[in-house]
Specification:
With 172 residues, this protein is an alpha/beta fold. It contains four helices and six strands, in the order E-H-E-E-E-H-E-H-E-H.
Amino acid sequence: MKLDQFMIIQKKICMIGAFATGKTSLVARLVHSIFSEKYHTTVGVKIDKKTIDIQDNKINLILWDIYGEDEFQKLQMSYLRGSAGYLLVVDGTRHNTLEQAFDLQTKVEDAIGKVPFILVMNKWDITDEWEIESTEIDDVIQKGWTVIKTSAKNGVGVEEAFQTITKKILDC
């Protein structure tokens, strides 16, 4: 779909997942090409912007990096309003983040309906510490979900994840 050459499309994409899964680091890697070993908890939401080229179009991604859900803090569904899609981020070294992702996906769909999303299996650079089995990833793929393995630390799969979700959004 080639759009008017003077038209720039803007799409809001939310980063969703348990705390410390690497949502902020994925955005920092995409937008600023950096990675920090220091962990900083996201408070509320942090908004960044990145322009990417897809299908001969310039797309402004408005990236909403939403704080991670834990037992004390639940996701504010109001942050999701107007979202064209989302990345559901899992930490491969913590199995419980996959279970939380399933729960969050249901909550998000209940709140904003069916919008494109992909499951991002982060921390691919330390697979020797992974708690999530490849058979579990295969099961998720069998459900029809798109799964991309990433490492915010070394950049593997990061660009692919954002390109993939953007293409899914444009194809809707």
